[in-house]
Amino acid sequence: MNPILVTGARGQVGVEVCEKLLILGYKVIACGHSDLDITSENEVSSLFESTPISLVINCAAYTAVDKAEDEEKAAYAVNALGPKNLALECKERDIPLIHISTDYVYDNGKTGLHTENEGTGTRCVYGKTKLFGERFILDSGVRAVILRASWIFGRYGKNFVKAMANLAASRDSLKVVCDEFGNPTPARALADDICYIADSILNDSCTDFGVYNYCGYPSIVRNDFARVILDKAREIGMLSHDVEVHPITSEEFGAKAKRPADSRMNSDKFANTFRRDLPDWRLYLEETLRGL
């Protein structure tokens, strides 16, 4: 079987995906930005012309949400044009594609659990560029599974869990927003399920292409998420003092990008289609903290 191409292979999900694929016995072409610039149509085309590929997993993304407000062209290139380039090459060669999107497409004013059937909307550059990426993939006609994931954290790379632990190490109080409601998602669980889908596609047992919500459970408010993280850090001996979490509003925090106030997702479509249990994110905190 031809190898699987993994883009964004040095990111927190990409590393996990590559590790899992190798454990499953697949050959992997692991590409970070320095190996393959997915924003370059010529580079992508050249790779596909010279290398036999059985499936593409796109983990590449511009994820600096606030920075994207000042670097819209760069965010658009990675989050929109990159997926477009991959999708068009995959379509031409009948290669299936798995792509990671975001819960930020649900900043549409609705509250409660969002489903794939409702309209999308977003107020920040990051969300808009990710939504463009989704649309380019769907418009290409490629056989694709798009997973809208939220609040990803894991052993590799930068994420909210590590940031809270690092800040708490030298402080006795933290200010964390109290008006963002969502679902933390463990990178390793996401990677395991991506690889399950990949395996199903390559063994011709998956025909359910389309857009799916994917997230951990339970839902939680951002400042309470911080408290759970710090409690776990104390429990495993990584934090020796108490740290008080002070709730503040997003407006008070002053972030440049407008994030969704309620991006909780209903992932029943994913669970029922692929017959997979969604992860309890609390079970992945310790391994993430020890990743520091």
From TrEMBL:
Q: Which organism is it from?
A: Succinivibrio dextrinosolvens DSM 3072
RmlD-like substrate binding domain: residues covered: 4-290
Under which pathway is this protein filed? Carbohydrate biosynthesis; dTDP-L-rhamnose biosynthesis
Under NCBIfam families, the record lists:
rmlD (TIGR01214)
The protein's GO terms of the molecular function aspect are: dTDP-4-dehydrorhamnose reductase activity
Q: Which SUPFAM superfamilies match?
A: NAD(P)-binding Rossmann-fold domains
Q: Which GO terms describe its biological process?
A: dTDP-rhamnose biosynthetic process; O antigen biosynthetic process
Record-linked InterPro entries = dTDP_dehydrorham_reduct, NAD(P)-bd_dom_sf, RmlD-like-bd
Similarity remark? Belongs to the dTDP-4-dehydrorhamnose reductase family.
Q: Does the keyword Cell membrane apply?
A: no
Q: How is the cofactor bound?
A: Binds 1 Mg(2+) ion per monomer.
Q: Which UniProt keywords apply?
A: NADP, Oxidoreductase
Q: What is this protein called?
A: dTDP-4-dehydrorhamnose reductase
- Do you know which CDD domains this protein is assigned to? dTDP_HR_like_SDR_e
